Amino acid sequence: MTTVNHLIHGEMTAGTGRSADVFNPSTGEVSKQVALADRATMQLAIDSAKSAFPAWRNTPPAKRAQVMFRFKQLLEQHEATISKLISEEHGKTLEDAAGELKRGIENVEFACAAPEILKGEYSRNVGPNIDAWSDMQPIGVVAGITPFNFPAMVPLWMYPLAIVCGNCFILKPSERDPSSTLYIAQLLQEAGLPKGVLNVVHGDKEAVDALIEAPEVKALSFVGSTPIAEYIYSEGTKRGKRVQALGGAKNHAVLMPDADLDNAVSALMGAAYGSCGERCMAISVAVCVGDQIADALVQKLIPQIKALKIGAGTSCGLDMGPLVTAAARDKVKGYIDAGVAQGASLVVDGRDLVVAGNENGYFVGGTLFDKVTPEMTIYTDEIFGPVLCIVRVGSLEQAMQLINDHEYGNGTCIFTRDGESARLFCDEIEVGMVGVNVPLPVPVAYHSFGGWKRSLFGDLHAYGPDGVRFYTRKKAITQRWPQRASHEAAQFAFPSNG
Fold first, then answer.
1. Which of 145, 45, 161 has its CA nearest to residue 472?
2. What is the separation of C-alpha 294 from the centre of its chain, rounded to a whole number of angstroms?
3. Angle separating helix axes 79-90 and 179-190, nearest 10 degrees
C-alpha cells in the first residue's frame, strides 16, 4: 500500500514507524497510509528551514516572485490531477475541488506581487539632513497547521505569502487527506524553490506540539476548530510566538420579507449543502424575518434538497459527495437525532441515504430543520454537515441580536432589496465577514479573511494585506549624514523636528 511521506529539505523522507490510514470516503476503504512524524522528524524539518533562511531572506523579492509565477503556471497545468486527489481523499466533488484550487491560486497571484507589497515607506528630510524609512523584514522560520476541508486552498493561504516575504515555512497538513497538499508542495519545488524553504511534515498532536514548543519557530498559522485554535493560540503566545488561529463558525443568513426568494433559495442551496456543509463559511442557519417568508422558503427548499445529486465525489455532475470520515458522518447523524429529540421540526431527513454502488461510503443526505430555537444544540454547535436550520424571528433587530449573541462571528449575510436594512446590518452586525445578497462572503485574495469573537484568536486575519503584516516585522530606520563642514553641540532635550 502507498505511504504518503514527508517532504523535508526537498527530499521525500520516510516516517519512523507510526502511521495512520487514509480513507476513500466514497467507498469507506483504506486507500493509503500517511506517515506520522515524531519530534525528531519535526526537528529535521525545523533544522532544514533554519539553515535555508539566511540565503532565502537575502534573495531579492523579485526573484522570490518569479518562483511564484512558475508555481502558478504549474498549478493551472495540473488542475485535473490535484482535483482528483482532493476528491479521492476528502470526498468533495471534482467541480468543488477545482473551485477550491482556483481560490488558492488567487493567493499565489497575490504573492507574485512581492516587490510591490514589500515596499516600505520613505520620508526625506524629517529633520536637518535626516531621512527616515520603514523596512518590512521576514520573521524567520514560520509554520502552518491546516484542516482537512480545504487541503489545497488553506495551505495556499499561508505559505506562498510567507515565502515571498522571505520566511521559511513548515506545513503540517491534515493527515486525513494529505496527498494533494504534498503534490502541490512538490510543484513548488519544481518551480525552483530552494531546498528547505518549504517543508511538509504529516502528523497528529505530537507534531503540533513540537511546532508550538520549538523556539526556532517564530510564528504559527492555524485553521480548524475553536478548541484547538484556542489551545494553539494560548500555548504559542505564552512562548512568545506570533499566532493567528482561525476557529469555528455558525454562519447565519437573514432573509427579509422583501428578499428575492428564488435567488436566495439558489444561494442557500449552494452555501448550505456545497461540500457537504464541510466549510467554515457554510450557511447553517437561515433566519427568516416573519412567518410568511419562512413558509415560502421551506416550500421552495424541500424539492431542491430532495433533488440533490449525491454520489462518489470523483463522479462528474454531482452536487454533493460524502463526508470525510465515518466519525464525521456519525457525528452529523447524532446532531440530527438531537434536533428531533429537542423539538425541532425535521422537514427533510438525510440520515437514511444510501448511494447505490457505494453503500459503505460516508454519506448523509441534505437535511432541513424548521422552527429551530436558540437553545437547541443544532443551533448552538457547528455541525459541519449538510444540515440547514430555519429560525423564525419578528424583526431585523431580533435577527441581528440572535447573531450577535452567538459565540462565533465568522461569516453572515442578508438577503434584501432594501438599502437601509442592508446598511444597518453591515454596520451593526458583530461578524468579521458580511455579505449582502452574497451567501459566502469569502474575501478575494487582495483583501483578508477572518472572523470575530471565538472564530479568530489573534489580531491579524489570513492572507492579503493582513497576511503580509503577519509574516513580516516592520523596522523603522532614521539616518543622518551631516554636512562635512558642520558641527553641532550636544543636545540634551528630547529630539524633535522643530
1. 161
2. 31
3. 160
Pairing of strands 122-127, 130-138: antiparallel
Is residue 467 within a helix (H) or strand (E), and if so which, with residue range?
Answer: helix 464-470
* 0.90 exceeded by pTM: yes
Confidence of residue 486 (pLDDT cuts 50, 70, 90): low
**Using an 8 Å Cβ cutoff, are 451 and 409 in contact?**
yes
The mean pLDDT of 457-466, rounded to a whole number, is 95
Euclidean distance between CA atoms 159 and 144, whole angstroms = 8
Query: Under a CB-based contact definition with an 8 Å cutoff, are residues 145 and 221 in contact?
Result: yes
Q: Which domains, ranges and CATH numbers included, belong to the chain?
A: 3-247+455-477 (3.40.605.10), 251-436 (3.40.309.10)
Q: Measured between alpha carbons, how far is 355 from 351 in angstroms, rounded to an integer?
A: 12
Give the number of C-alpha atoms closer than 13 A to the C-alpha of residue 319, restricted to the C-beta side.
18
Please enumerate in sequence order all residues whose Cβ is within 8 A of that of 419, keeping only pairs 6 or more positions apart, or say none.
Answer: none
Specify whether the CB–CB gap between 407 and 401 falls below 8 A: no
User: Strand 283-289 to strand 251-255: parallel, antiparallel, or no bridges (unpaired)?
Assistant: parallel
Residues 254-271: pLDDT tens digits? 999 999 999 999 999 999
Active site residues: 280
CA 20 – CA 30 distance, rounded (Å) = 10
> Looking up cell 531621512, which residue turns up?
131
Task: Sheet with 456-457: list strands edge to edge.
Answer: 11-13, 6-8, 198-200, 168-172, 141-145, 217-223, 242-246, 456-457
DSSP 3-state percent helix, strand, coil across the chain (nearest 5):
40, 25, 40
Which residue bears the cell 419562512?
A: 294
DSSP notation for 178-239: -HHHHHHHHHHHHTTPPTTSEEE---SHHHHHHHHH-TTEEEEEEES-HHHHHHHHHHHHTT
> φ, ψ for residue 127 (rounded to 5)?
-155, 180
pLDDT one-digit tens code per residue, 370-417: 999 999 999 999 999 999 999 999 999 999 999 999 999 999 999 999
- Specify the DSSP class assigned to residue 310: B
- For 1-51, the pLDDT digits (tens) are 899 999 999 999 997 789 999 999 999 999 999 999 999 999 999 999 999
